[in-house]
Structures are given as C-alpha cells and as structure tokens.
Amino acid sequence: MDRIFIEGLDVDTVIGVYDWERGIRQCLRLDLTFAWDIRAAAASDDLSHALDYAAVSERIQDFASQAQFQLVETFAERLAAVLMEEFQIPGLRLKVTKPGAVPAAAGVGVEIVRGCL
Ligand SMILES: Nc1nc2c(c(=O)[nH]1)N=C([C@H](O)[C@@H](O)CO)CN2
C-alpha cells in the first residue's frame, strides 16, 4: 500500500492531567502517515481521487481546537478514529508529541498504528 504523510503539524488544544493545564492551551506536534493507494489519483491527475492532505490537516486543526482531553493517549485514539471514519482511511500511524512536558526531553508522547498500514 502507498502512503501519504503529514509531518510536524502543530495544533493548539487543551491537554493535560494537572489543574494548571486545564485552563491553558498547549501545542501538540503531530506526525501522520496514511495508507492510501495513490494510483487512481496519479492516473487521473484529479484531487477527488486523492487523500487531500490539506483537507485532512484542516480537520485535524478543527478537532484539536474543540478537544479538551487529559491524556495524549486519548487525543491520539479519538483523532485516529475520526480521520479513519471521515476520510475512509484504511490505516494510519499517528505520533503525538507534547513538547516541553518533560523539560529535559526534546519531546514526549505516544505513537499509535491503527488499521492496515
Ligand atoms: N502517558 C502519559 N503520561 C503523562 C501524560 C499523558 O498524557 N500521557 N500527561 C502528563 C501531564 O499532563 C504532563 O504532560 C504535564 O507536564 C504526565 N504524564
């Protein structure tokens, strides 16, 4: 299966376990890889046959702007389900990084694979 990717997508959301995190917005950095057969899009040169990474990015930004989860695990799981359902994506890899959560680390977070990648 071919793959489409979105790297280093910064989103703004309410995320965190602690009281001080519930009243602020923080950045999450997302890296996504989608399973997608690109042959129909390539043969037709028609965006309607492609997985439109701009439309997917917009949906992710909208999801994050509404979300208020405590755990990055929940953010990742719910976002993966929304994208797979709404864009008929057969499989994806999603890495969610929370920069600055552990000051000594460049980043911490989760990476999940769902469906067939
Ligand atoms: N596995 C996780 N561990 C932690 C999370 C999380 O979402 N998943 N979150 C926190 C706090 O919100 C932290 O990021 C605040 O700096 C701690 N551990």
From TrEMBL:
Domain Dihydroneopterin aldolase/epimerase intervals: 4-114
InterPro entries: Dihydroneopterin_aldolase, FolB_dom, GTP-CH-I_C/QueF
Keywords: Folate biosynthesis, Lyase
SUPFAM superfamilies per UniProt: Tetrahydrobiopterin biosynthesis enzymes-like
GO molecular function: dihydroneopterin aldolase activity
Its job: Catalyzes the conversion of 7,8-dihydroneopterin to 6-hydroxymethyl-7,8-dihydropterin.
SMART domains referenced in this protein's UniProt entry, alphabetically: FolB (SM00905)
Protein name (database record): 7,8-dihydroneopterin aldolase
Catalytic activity of the protein: 7,8-dihydroneopterin = 6-hydroxymethyl-7,8-dihydropterin + glycolaldehyde
Gene3D superfamilies referenced in this protein's UniProt entry, alphabetically: 3.30.1130.10
Pathway note: Cofactor biosynthesis; tetrahydrofolate biosynthesis; 2-amino-4-hydroxy-6-hydroxymethyl-7,8-dihydropteridine diphosphate from 7,8-dihydroneopterin triphosphate: step 3/4
Enzyme Commission identifier(s): 4.1.2.25
Pfam families xref list: FolB
